[in-house]
Amino acid sequence: QVQLQESGPGLVKPSGTLSLTCAVSGDSISSNWWSWVRQSPGQGLEWIGEIYHSGSANYNPSLESRVTISIDESKKHFSLNLKSVTAADTAVYFCTRGVEYGGYDYFGYWGQGTLVTVSS
Amino acid sequence: SALTQPPSASGSPAQSVTISCTGTSSDVGAYKYVSWYQQHPGKAPKLIIYEVDKRPSGVPDRFSGSKSGNRASLTVSGLQAEDEADYYCSSYAGSDNGVFFGGGTKLTVL
3-state SS string over A51-86? Predict the structure, then answer.
């Protein structure tokens, strides 16, 4: 059974960098796409970006200048760095694993999510 | 949000309800990679429909999806109390834009 667990600081100062890690268990990290999705309080979902085990990554154009997603196969985790944060980046951050159907990966497995608040 | 959903929908037990998701010819209208997610309060979303109208194993057949042009729809038939949740549509939007989500629809079972 695939399990994903987000970890990282719950509070980040404005203009700082938000850093989260997603630990993967019950599955190999050497396949599928691994993504970050966030949800602002009381709001909808927003795709942040994704990474393949090879290191190839794609990002939401609206966040691309501030986002880096990386993967560490040996440690079985992948990470999110979001720099120059503002209050608008306050959200629950989910990590996900893609499930492939018909040649496309959907967000099939999700972590429980972790709330990150941007505040001084 | 890039995809437009009604903020709320409701129905009585055993009834059917349909939730719409409107995009453009560059996302919903262009690709078959339309999906729907169910999210209960305080929980992570769950994939319930993929590729417009297909259900992952374990998802009841009360959930069905369809698409016409730039508009996708999720229908929940035979409403049950446990179906009360937020529902989000999602679509691939090409290599330049990645993935779009709708703003979500809160489904209330009366």
Answer: EECCCCEEECCCCCCCEEEEEECCCCEEEEEECCCC
A42 token code pair: 């009381």
How many angstroms separate the CA of residue B39 from the nearest CA in chain A?
11
**Under DSSP, is residue B87 helix (H, G, I), strand (E, B) or coil?**
strand
User: Is the pLDDT confidence value at A59 over 90?
Assistant: yes
- Rounded to an integer, what distance in angstroms lies between the CA atom of residue B51 and that of residue B33? 5
For residues A91 and A40, the answer to whether their CB atoms sit within 8 Å is: yes
User: Is residue B1 over pLDDT 80?
Assistant: no
Contacts of B44 (CB under 8 A, 6+ apart): A94, A110, A111, A112, A113
Rounded CA-CA distance B106/B10 in Å is: 8
CA distance A14 to chain B (A): 24
Q: Which two tokens stand for residue B4?
A: 């437009």
| Rg (chain B; Cα; Å) | 13
Q: Which amino acid is residue B6, in one-letter code?
A: P
pLDDT digits (tens, 9 = 90+) for A64-88: 999 999 999 888 999 999 999 999 9
CB contact at 8 A, A22 and A78 = yes
- What gap in Å lies between CA B60 and CA B57, rounded to an integer? 8
Are A45 and B37 an interchain contact pair (Cβ–Cβ within 8 Å)? Answer: yes
Q: Hey, what are B21's tokens?
A: 């998701």
